[in-house]
Amino acid sequence: MKINEMEKLSGISKKNIRFYEEQGLLSPQRNRENGYREYSMEDLEQIKKIKLLRKLCIPIEEIRNMQNATFTLSECMERHLIYLQREEKNILCTREMCKKIIESENMLESLDADFYLEVMNTMEKEGVQFKNVSKIDQEKKTGSIVTTTIIMIVATVFLIVCVAAIIKEPDSTPIMVIFILSTIFLMVGVLVALKQRMKEIKGGEENEASKY
C-alpha cells in the first residue's frame, strides 16, 4: 500500500510516518520499478504498535531497543512504570507547593521567594525533581544558534574568497555573479534562522516523535 493509505489506516500523518522511518523504527520495501515505498500489513501493525507506545510516552530509543531485542516489552513497561511513579511524585510535590502559595494569599510583590526556594531545595535533596525551565529553554535555542553560526561562518569565508578573487582578476564578471549569489545565500540563511527563532518564541520546535 502507498503512504496515503497508511496514513488513513493508522491515523498517523505522512510526516510522522517518514519520521519513524528516519529513526529506523519502520523499514518498508521499495518498488523496484519506481522506487516508491510499498507498505505491507506488517508495516501497518508495526506503526500501530509505535503509536500505542508513543501515546504511553515510551521514548524512541526504547522502542528501537525492543525492536532490536535489547530488552523485552515487559522490561520496558517496568522501567517506564518506575519513571512514571517518579514523575507522579514530582507532580504531586509541585502541586502541593502551588497550594501552599495559594493558601498564603500572597501577591507577587509580597511573595517570599527565598522561603519557597529553600523548601524546594530541601525537597530536591530528598529526590524530588522540579522542572528546570531555563535548561529547557536553553536546549530549544541551541539548535537555532548553532545552525545560524555555521551558515554565517561558511558564507563569510566564501565572501572573503570571492572578494580576494575580484581584486586579482582583470575580468571580474563571473566572480561578481558568484559574489552576488553568495550574498543572496547569506540573506536566505539569515531569514531561515530568523524564521526558526520566531517559531521557538511562539512555542518551540515541533517534536514529531511526540505526535505518535
In short:
The chain has 212 residues and is an all-alpha fold.
Please give the alpha-carbon distance between the first and last residues: 20 Å
Secondary-structure-based class equals mainly alpha
Count of discrete structural domains: 3
Which stretches are poorly predicted, pLDDT < 50 over at least 5 residues? 134-140, 202-212
Radius of gyration: 26 Å
The helix/strand series, from N terminus to C terminus, equals HHEEHHHHHH
Helix content: over 70%
Description:
By secondary structure, the protein is mostly helical. The chain has 3 domains: 3-67, Multidrug-efflux Transporter Regulator, Chain: A, Domain 2 (Orthogonal Bundle); 73-125, no CATH class; 133-210. It contains 8 helices and 2 strands, in the order ααββαααααα. It has helices at residues 3-10, 14-22, 41-55, 60-67, 73-103, 113-125, 133-168, 173-201; strands spanning 29-30, 37-38. It has a two-stranded antiparallel ribbon. Helix 7 runs antiparallel to helix 8 (173-201). The radius of gyration is 26 Å and the shape is flat. The two termini are 20 Å apart. The model is unreliable at 134-140 and 202-212 (pLDDT under 50).
Features:
212 residues, mainly alpha, Multidrug-efflux Transporter Regulator, Chain: A, Domain 2, 3 domains, two-stranded antiparallel ribbon, 8 helices, 70% helix, flat, disordered C terminus
Record the SSE blueprint.
Elements (H helix, E strand, L loop, with lengths): L2 H8 L3 H9 L6 E2 L6 E2 L2 H15 L4 H8 L5 H31 L9 H13 L7 H36 L4 H29 L11
Antiparallel strand pairs: 1-2
